[in-house]
Amino acid sequence: MLINGRQEKQILAKAREDRWAIGAFNAFDLNSLEAILTAAEELGVPALVQTWDFYNPDSERNSFTEAGARIFEKQIILRAKESPVPVILHLDHTPSYAGCVRGIRAGWNSVMIDASAKSLEENIALSAKVVEAAHACDVLVEGEIGHVAGYSGLDTIYTGVDEAVSYVKGSGVDLCAVSVGTVHGFYATEPKLNYERIAELREAIDIPLVMHGGSGLSEEQFRKSIENGIVKINFATYVQIAGGKAIVEAVQGKERPMFNTVVKAGQDAAKDFIKMHMQIFGTQPVKL
Ligand code: 13P
Prior knowledge:
Structural class: alpha/beta
Bound molecules: 1,3-dihydroxyacetonephosphate
CATH class: Alpha Beta
CATH architecture: Alpha-Beta Barrel
CATH topology: TIM Barrel
Number of domains: 1
Number of helices: 10
Largest sheet: 8 strands, parallel, barrel
Shape: globular
Strand content: 5-15%
Low-confidence stretches: none
Strand order of the largest sheet: 1-2-3-4-5-6-7-8
CATH superfamily: Aldolase class I
């Protein structure tokens, strides 16, 4: 069942209150979409599917033609509506107002405006503009304050409590991504998570906190982050690795590897890996 922004808010509020988290997994094609949704369906818990702004011709992640993007968008919506579990469709890291509006038009429940590399004032102004449009359409907005690095090896700059309070108050966002020691993609050195900062941010801000760069963290690191206040965990790279490794195994020693069998092996492994993480995050069914 494809839910609306108000219902997404209900799920996130419940998670925040009961201290569990929802994993936000990235779909880039029908196989990854299926892996995420079947994982949630087998556990009977809400699913959070993230996509990028696949209409953006400037995005380095863009692998679609405009027609391809339109078809994929419709396939996602149809599949989400057919699901027996609540499905949140979320637009991940979008740097522009236009990109967020495209997500709203497509029927996504929430969009992320990522202006975290800008000054606090510019970040607030752009996020507030997206919030005004999104809230008129019952769509939630995630913003980011403090920048989660996009590659390994950067010194972590933790989100400051005062800047986060100003950002949330000034922008009116519904979810707040914070920098607490993770990076996107692979780690060159051991991540140093600042649990104390997570707890301080939870105390100071009364909306759900989001952690990006979930790949590569240990079970204990996830549990402590959630205990201290993280509610949404973005998780992408290692799901791709889990599926990719299974594909490598499935072709090994085979003279005639079958396309359908190989792809299915990757999808199943990705699904199992996602399920395992949904369980680590303690994701619960929510009555809407
Ligand atoms: P990872 O690829 O490091 O799991 O990060 C995903 C993410 O944060 C997407 O927004």
